[in-house]
Amino acid sequence: MTPVVVSKRTWVQGRPAAYSVAGEGMPVLLLHGWALAHHTYRGVIEIIASQGCRVYAPAMPGFGGTGGLSDGAFSISGYARWVSDFLDVLEVDEPAVVMGHSFGGGVAVRLAYEHRAKVRSLVLVNAVGGSSWRKGNSLRSIADRPLWDWGLHFPSDVWPLRQATKVVPVMAEDFVPNLLRNPRAMLRVANLARRADLRHELEQLRDQGMPISIIWATRDGVIPRESFEALCVASGVQGTVVEGSHSWLLAEPNRFGEVITNDLRVAKAARDLEHDVPTVQRRGLRRVTSLNGRAKPAAATVARRSGHPPADE
Fold first, then answer.
1. Residue 33: CB partners within 8 Å, gap ≥ 6?
2. Which residue in 46, 95, 213, 294 has the fewest CB atoms around it within 10 Å?
3. How confident is the model at residue 282, as a pLDDT?
């Protein structure tokens, strides 16, 4: 049965906040990209929830009807602090797998860096923060990339036509209302996103043992390959390259579910070991019965990919 995605409202930091929630099980936090909100990711939320997860997808401040941040708090750190408070309001009392797409990926990194106890692992999808861009033969900071160049590449995100028929309707559900409701927030967040350099934070998280996965699509005209590679170097992971454009997961949520399956399995296995749940049979885990008939958990021997041991629930 497909999990039911429910839209709800609450209050965070004294302002109204909208979000979607679906499924039961290990908490997963999904952070949306620039100019979008939780409605756009309904298909993605369903796919994640169908893998035995409780998915929380907030509309971040300034988008989807959620009140904007104050001028003094307007920064990626401010967004991360808001997300931390959002988890507190919903009483999510254990670390979550945090998945961030585009601008949401940058917020996810800052959340893990500044609120480490809230994050079990990171999955960054076509994320900002690599701060690298190639102009001709020179490698430059992505902050030097003019806005008109971003604009030239943005239309390629919805083509070819087969993809456009899938992506445009779901993006329009949030993009158009956001543009009409708060165009200033869209511009300000765009500037935050293009100036984001989160390599230092990723290096620190790598050294702390944070499990990190980084995914990028071959036709992404918004996040250059050089930026993706810079994120991978800082994180110490190989990264995963898929066919598609910047918003490929919106066009093909089922394929996204396949790509992240191992990340969820690894997180579930780690969570079960932490909670000491010996009654569940898992791939890669073996149960041994002692002479007195009492079962004892045995050590897990599992393969590793990108530094994470895969296992089934």
1. 101, 102, 103, 104, 126, 246, 247
2. 294
3. 43
Alpha-carbon distances, residue 42 vs 6, 20, 148, 181 (angstroms): 9, 8, 30, 21
Cα separation, 87 vs 201, in Å, equals 21
Domains along the chain with CATH numbers: 6-277 (3.40.50.1820)
**Nearest-angstrom CA–CA distance, 25 and 232:** 29
Q: How sure is the predictor about 276, in pLDDT bands with cuts at 50, 70 and 90?
A: confident
CA trace torsion 62, 65, 67, 71 (10° rounding): 20
Q: How many CB atoms lie within 10 A of CB 243?
A: 10
Query: d(Cα 231, Cα 107) in Å, to the nearest integer?
Result: 14
State the pairing for strand pair 53-58/15-22.
antiparallel
Predicted pLDDT at 174: 79
Nearest Cα to 181, choosing from 17, 28, 35? 35
- Bridge partners of residue 31, in order along the sequence: 100
pLDDT band at 221 (very low <50, low <70, confident <90, very high): confident
Beta strands in the chain (DSSP E): 6-12, 15-22, 26-31, 53-58, 96-101, 119-125, 133-135, 138-140, 212-217, 240-242, 287-289, 295-297
With tokens 């690599």, the residue in question is 130
